[in-house]
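ugh ok fine here u go
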Amino acid sequence: MAIVAAGVSVPLLGVGLLLVLAALTYKQLSTYLKNWMVMKPIPAVSRTYPFIGNALDLKTDAVEFFQQIQGYVEEFRNMPVIKLWLGTVPFVILYHAETVEPIVSNPVHMDKSITYSFLHPWLGTGLLTSTGPKWRQRRKMLTPTFHFTILQDFLEVMNEQAEVLVNKLAPQAGKGPFNCFNYITLCALDIICETAMGKKIYAQSNSESEYVQSVYKMSDIISRRQRAPWFWLDFTYKYFGEGNVHESTLKLLHSFTYEVIRERAESLKKEDESKTRKRRAFLDMLLKTKDEDGNSMSHQDIQEEVDTFMFRGHDTTAAAMNWALHLLGSHPDVHRKVQRELREVFGASDRVADMEDLKQLKYLECVIKEALRLFPSVPFFARSLREDAKINGFKVPSGTNAIIVTYALHRDPRYFPEPEEFRPERFLPENVTGRPPYAYIPFSAGLRNCIGQRFALMEEKVVLSSILRHFNVKTSQSREELRPTGGLILRPESGIWIQLEKCDEAQTNL
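structure:
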């Protein structure tokens, strides 16, 4: 009898599974059809096919994809919202302050888009990718690590590594055009490794950094997967996509940070025993941080935050500084104003910058902000709508993903006349007054704004001021030759090519 029961249970189980699968399919199909009808009035970026959407239209090349997104925005500049379907998943594209604000400022819509799930194998569910109670708890725990007094400790590292960078650049002075992108990136990597993890890795002395190359490779891999819904399933990605390359790159990235965390934890124990105080690092604070219940962070918790800060903390600032150098090198008038300000603050001395100096570099800050307007390090980011929304009369259903195109938002001619022109004066206090707060968001905005933005601005001021106190910069590329790539971070396709001349008394006494 038991055998018969067991025999009967097998087909019943199969029928049960089929019924569950049918129910899930029906639910997904009905949701898809409902969303399709609700969003029908919203203009589409191109002809939209059922179940495929616009996925086949999207360019696979990173430069061409970015140009494609720019083209969509320009074509529909006067429309409040446009739509894009990736398979059966709906997206809306936003690029006006008045449509971005109600999404970014509303805590209901704080969840990241479905496409951020492809970052989870690398960054876990840390501050960048987590949501809900975990994100709130983690943000509360990590905010004190960016206190003013801790940033002062970090300033020493920034000055030291900026000096190394200047010495590395010196042999290029007077020798014609060269690509400075990797020089700046390795400096940013040295800074983040020492401030975040308390470890000197001497990346600037090892120009072929395997970690940097792996970050670039992983960023490109993830960006391509985000645009290809047929690779969203792990099975298809592993056997028909770049799954194996993804795994090997991931191992290298994780082994690097895992080893540093292990070494730092051991070092911290010895420091506690000897009662000696070394320079604080972000990792030290993570190792000692406790939540409201007195629980320490697990090794996995710490690793996902370290991986997040290693990626976001060096790649974004490196890109920003490179774009700023290009713009300074192609605008001699702005270049002269920055150097004049530097002489007013530092005189003829070669002393390093302190916090008071950085406060006085107000025009350089305007330059950095204007560079971030034209070339935001994160050209677009996305949120998942957790309730129905109305965007300028168009209904957008819950579950839709909203893509905020920062690159286009920052080029709204209503708030930035002649938007392609490089004008740092736009960010003088008198010119900022009256501008909508969500018209310029290089560090995102609302609850999920970048926790490290003060750190980033401080680093950019230190490094750029160090370069410009020693060299005159001239660009060797036109704007058209830059060809930005639209991945996770906005980078020029072939780097930033500049020429350097050492500053002499005749040149700097302007």
